[in-house]
Amino acid sequence: TIHQYQLYLYNSPATKTSAGKQGLSLENQYARLVPVKAFFRWLVKKDYFLYDPAASLQLPRIKKNLPKGIMSKKEINRVLNQPDPETSLGLRDKAILELLYSTGIRNTELRNLTIFDANIIHGELRINQGKGGKDRVVPIGEIATQYLQTYLREGRPKLVKGKEENNILFVSINGKQLTAACLVW
Predict the structure, then answer these.
(1) Triad 86, 89, 93: Cα angle to 5°
(2) What are the Cα distances from residue 162, in Å, to 54, 88, 173?
(3) Residue-wise pLDDT tens digits, 3-58
(4) Which residues are within 8 A (CB) of 63 and not within 5 positions of it... i.e. 6 or more apart?
């Protein structure tokens, strides 16, 4: 019955596909089959069924589209030029933006960086426990490396001065680890 339902969704006369075939989109089929699988999994977990009849049900593979809201070069440059690198906080923010732009690392990954994760000599950044709990090394672009080096030499010491020394790479105004709210410009 479950497989017949899946065939029904595939051959459903609800829409016409671009190839002229009748049938629901893969996304629509997926959205209708996932609750069926979850329901049977729940029934087995609650001991209403001895086995899961939907366990062998293959869900349609849906394609993942790239994001559509990509900034233009002019917009990127406008964002990158917002911080004032003449101040400690501006230098920190400039290094953060250049590093995010250069490496493509995630917000959480950036906030968890320590001073030992940045290898300025080799232009590399070690990401520990990134997405999926995986470690990786990513290259840093020249401009980001320059701002990171300047931040470490001039900006960071002023932000942690007189406070408890920590190994967090990017610190807040009080010398502590940045929070997600700090990175909302």
Answers:
(1) 95
(2) 62, 15, 12
(3) 899 888 888 766 555 555 566 888 899 999 999 999 999 999 999 999 999 999 99
(4) 26
Query: For the chain, how many helices (H) and strands (E)?
Result: 7, 3
Collapsing DSSP to helix, strand or coil, 2 comes out as helix
Tokens of 12: 């459903």
Matching residue, tokens 């990513």: 138
Q: String of b and e for 103-122 (b: at least 16 CB within 10 Å)? A: bebeeebbbbbeeebbeeee
Tokens of 100: 């995010």
Integer angstrom CA distances of residue 24 from 9, 19, 124? 6, 12, 47
Q: In what order do the strands lie in the sheet with 136-139?
A: 118-119, 124-127, 136-139
Q: Exposed, middle or buried: residue 31 (CB in 10 Å: 0-12, 13-18, 19+)?
A: middle
**Residue showing tokens 């996932």:** 34
CA–CA separation, 41 vs 46, rounded Å?
Answer: 9
Task: Enter the tokens of residue 23.
Answer: 């049938």
pLDDT at 184: 57
pTM: 0.65
Neighbours of 57 (CB within 10 A): 16
At what angle are helices 2-11 and 26-45 packed, to 10 degrees? 170
